[in-house]
Amino acid sequence: MPQASLLDLLPQLVSGPPHPQALGFALESVEEDVVTLRCPYREDLIGDPESRVLAGGVVTTLLDHTCGMAVWVKLDQYMPIATLDLRIDYMRAAEPGLDLLARARCYKLTRSIAFVRAWAYDRTRKDPVAAAQSAFMLQSDGGRKPGANRNAGGAL
Amino acid sequence: MIDAGAHLESLLNGIPYARFLGVRAELAGDEMTAILPYADKLIGNPLLPALHGGVTGAFMELTAMAQLSISERRDSLPRPIGVTVEYLRSGKPLATYARAHVKKVGRRIANVSVEAWQEARSAPIATLHAHFLLAETGA
Questions:
Q1: Cβ atoms of residues A66 and A94 within 8 Å
Q2: Domain that holds residue B39
Q3: pLDDT tens for the 139 residues of chain B, in order
């Protein structure tokens, strides 16, 4: 089980940054190394006006974000991380009107890389909307200082 | 037949999530460039600051769908089946651009690649490969 310090920080990591905040992401639960996040259904996040289904991009972002949280829970500490690659299978459309949940677990950590799997679902975990597999780079700032991305032409 | 530019504009305006992100597109002949203007709400890492990886992925997915709907006029939007995103560089707090290349369109499945960049086309920040299920024509 992660230490209290990371668990104290986790709700802020989940909902604090501007984009997850704009999407309304919230921490649902942490059970051992499994993290669950919730994204509330919203009209402005619809991807197909005909079916009123949430956009694939929302599912992608929720899965990416949940995977990142699972890495920090596994590390049991905060450090800069960045998504290296993300593969998603969309098995079915999310049901209109229902919140979307995502559950992720980091199943392997090396010195530089974290490997994560995640599932998105609405009604029940047994009927997933999407599955994700991702790899994250650890200590991804490579010595970059806060604000580094603001300096045009700076190290990438 | 409606003009491709008008079709593209009504497509993007008709997708609430594309409006939420602020995605626009420009056409030069049949070549489309999708544009994601910078907005603070797109930030995932406030320290650097960097765009959220999900935003970059979602933007490229919309680019692929928009390109498909220009080249393949169908009644309904294509539905993604599988998407692979490679992140190459951190997304800076700048406008992001993307272009899609439709690799193959079959009767039901289309394969599309997308590249996204910011300051230089030769230094992409991410690439996406996706396959979509197409609406049956005339269905």
A1: no
A2: 4-133
A3: 568 888 888 889 999 999 999 999 999 887 899 999 999 999 999 988 999 999 999 999 999 999 998 888 776 789 999 999 999 999 999 999 999 999 999 989 999 999 999 999 999 999 999 999 997 765 4
CB contact (8 A) between residue A65 and residue B44: yes
With contact defined as beta carbons under 8 Å apart, do B95 and B108 qualify? no
* Subunit contact A83:B83, Cβ cutoff 8 A: no
- B17–A46 C-beta distance less than 8 A: yes
A113-121 and A100-109 beta bridge pairing: antiparallel
Architecture of domain A4-144: Roll (3.10)
Q: How many domains does chain B divide into? A: 1
| B138 inside domain | no
Is B139 a member of any domain?
no
Q: Provide CB contacts within 8 A for A79, sequence distance 6+.
A: A72, A138, A139
Flag if A93 and B79 touch (Cβ within 8 Å). Answer: yes
Is A57–B61 a contact, with Cβ atoms under 8 angstroms apart?
Answer: yes
Residue pLDDT, tens place only, B62-85: 999 999 988 887 767 899 999 999
How far apart (Å, rounded) are the C-alpha atoms in residues A68 and A14? 9
The pLDDT tens digits of the residues spanning A107-133 come to 999 999 999 999 999 999 999 999 999
User: Chain A 21-40, CB below 8 Å of chain B: which residues?
Assistant: 21-22
Q: Give domain status of residue B31, yes or no.
A: yes
Find chain B residues with C-beta within 8 A of A80's C-beta: 45, 47
Give the distance from residue B102's alpha carbon to the nearest chain A alpha carbon, in angstroms: 19
**Domain assignment of residue B109, yes or no:** yes
